């Protein structure tokens, strides 16, 4: 394997772990609330902008890594109560409202920070030898951050009372209500968690991507592909699909251009919908 192919494959793995974090937030929102959040990519964009803004204001990327997801959680609580809950019983209307929310977020960021793309300096600079190539240290750190966040989320779902309630509501909301679980509150918290995960992904990705009001436009289709290929509502499947797609696109990009790589991903998704409509990982534990 040439150095270029290896570097692009590793880049794909790094990006796949970040995308997995974002797509997982989209998946839990769909799995619990049964809505398609068209604004999810723009919540990632808000995370990149917030990461840059906090880092510039405080001089600390690490503070941004903690503060922005917390603010994202609060924003998610507000959006669920004001935007999602009034329309949650009308699927078509939720698509319209979240699309409107997407436009509002983009225009608010453009009006505040301008339309010019910005770059954010990585908090860790330098390279290290990796499989015979010199690889950027921050990209390795970003992959570790994302992997730890993913592991932490699954531990939260399995080992905490709130996580158990979320799984119960996802499985059978009527029985959960009968058992005294506050379903409406759990729905709000779940949407807020999905928003916080998108914001966290944005902060992690900010030093390795451009920061601008359109950053989330390309992220959303990739997240949807990961959710569809992994299986709607299948959290582990979503993570696996995101990583596999990103690595595949990285390898394809080494012999072609990114447009062809995205076409290949769309072809894979089409094949999955045709032959495995419930996703590649249907039947896996959710």
From TrEMBL:
Belongs to the binding-protein-dependent transport system permease family. LivHM subfamily. Its main location: membrane. The keyword Translocase does not apply. The chain crosses the membrane at residues 12-33, 53-79, 91-109, 137-157, 178-207, 219-247, 259-276. InterPro entries: ABC_transp_permease (IPR001851), BCAA_transport_permease (IPR052157). The keyword Repeat does not apply. It comes from Rhodoplanes tepidamans. It is found in: Cell membrane. This is Branched-chain amino acid ABC transporter permease. It is a multi-pass membrane protein. It holds the Pfam family BPD_transp_2. Keywords: Amino-acid transport, Cell membrane, Membrane, Transmembrane, Transmembrane helix, Transport.
